[in-house]
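PT: before anyone asks, these are the final sequences, not the draft ones from last week. 609 residues across everything. Please model them as a single complex and drop the result in this thread when it's through.
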Amino acid sequence: MVTVPGSENDIDVLIIGAGPAGLGAAIESAGSGASVLVMDENSLPGGQLFKQIHKFFGSEDHFAGVRGFEIGKILLEQARKAGTMIKLDSKVLGLMDDGSVPYMVDEKVKIIRPRKIIIAVGGKENTIPFPGWTLPGIMTAGAAQTMTNIHRTLPGKKILMVGSGNVGLIVSYHLIQAGAVVVGIIDIANEISGYRVHADKIQRAGVPVYLNRKILSATGSGRVDTVNISGDLEFKVDSVLLAVGLSPLTDLARLFGCRICYSKALGGFMPLHDENLLTTNKNVYVCGDVAGIEEANTALDEGRLAGISAVMNLGYLDPAEGTRRKQEVIKRLRELRRGMYGEKRELAKKRVVSEYKKMFLNNEA
Amino acid sequence: MTNRVLNHPILKIKKKNLVTIKFDGKPYSAREGEPIASALMSHGILIHRRTHKTGENRGVFCGIGQCNDCVMIVDGIPNVRTCVTAVKDGMSIETQNGYGTWI
Amino acid sequence: MKEELRTAVLECWEEIPCNPCVTACPAGAITMRSLSDLPVLEKNLCTGCGLCAVACPGLAIIILADNHDKLNGTLTIPYEFLPLPEKGSIVTGTDRRGVSICSVEVLQVLCATTFRETCLVKVLVPKEYLNDVRGIKRIQP
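LR: through. Structure below.
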């Protein structure tokens, strides 16, 4: 294939996923002079950011106090200003032996040949099956959040939320802001899994949280109208939402030949990576939720780190400058991974990196 | 009865152009560019199809085009994922029974 | 009459990396050793202006004034629901778990573009309930 410099064929860095991680990677790599293409299978960029209508935590560097959808707009603007090309409705299909990447757009397959690839595809929602879980009206919390915050449509008016992690707590708050009633949040654990402040907001608004409870069954004719919860609890509802955790979307990483490891604290199976977010495929980096379920602020900074690592390797950044930038981002990531929730993730990330190092030490790769 | 969010403390409810879609023969209004699933949901329609073996009702589950539970017959074509397909003026949407057939 | 104490009350219990309250305070009354430490309020510097209450992404800060008149204090609460309560109306004050505590009168509803869609609702609260009331019941549309 003929490579025309400066054209669509001449891609230094292909970033798969236009969420905060992908955009962070784009801002750093395009900002260093590389030709960068961001691809996303969705019709809208921004990943999960545009559904988030609450103010984000973190520091000024992470747009703390700014609502998620506004952060999405800012990052998109910054990525475009840095010279990033963005292709939407484009789905990457795999990686060929000669390094070419086929992708599908408008039901046609096209090929590009990037020098480096950054996978930033995020995670997917987990599910739990129970009798009646297929009834219309029962869906994932993310599905309901998209419908409500982006398409201005509520899934129902009387909703039960299953799961008291941050997603369950935040989406419940979004739903009552949109005018629905959340009859309760249930969790199988004996304490609320999400942040205390998220729980306080929703409990202050009168939404009860039931702990040590399991969903036993859902019934209804047509759509769901009743749920049975352990401990003799029953609710009349018209929608049940599942917020039972996220897992990294590892398919592309597997297709690209990246070795996969398991980390409970980070959401399960995920691509093995080193401290520069390089996978076992020397041209492929990972960042954001695909490299372990964390938050939008860590996704943004991991994206930056992957972007800097990729362009340093390509020679676009002078080693001293590159190292300096990396240290800045790593310092911020460390700050974000502190406190009672962050510590677990910091430890888990360290384990992933040391497992990566052991692999190369034993010459397994 | 509508499931539409008509006012919101955070989001600006922008006025969107409306289109008309047909669901099982009846006309319904929809916001231009929204997914079919959202248009139906706004009218309280949550049953998209019935399963092949037992005729169970199914509808939106994952909302991102991965689970295939929301598929319907759109303009005569079966197995269309309504959560990731945008409405078009005059579009015909039908409840799908079973696997759907290709004419 | 005893001088009134007006202060921010920070109900931020967990070490989460977050510091908009520090940046928002014009008096420098809130400090944090590192990003994930709990915020520390210097009561002598706090003027009760409410900017931290608006800035806190967790809506975990309220402003308490303990001596509005002989019988009542006031609480200024960040609020993000519709309909907004009306000035002069009577609403229900609730505790941290949403349990109704007492009726409270709405003294002021403050919204500003710089508040980014978080409004401040100031309610008159009988002194004996100042440490219990932490929210108001949503108004039925």
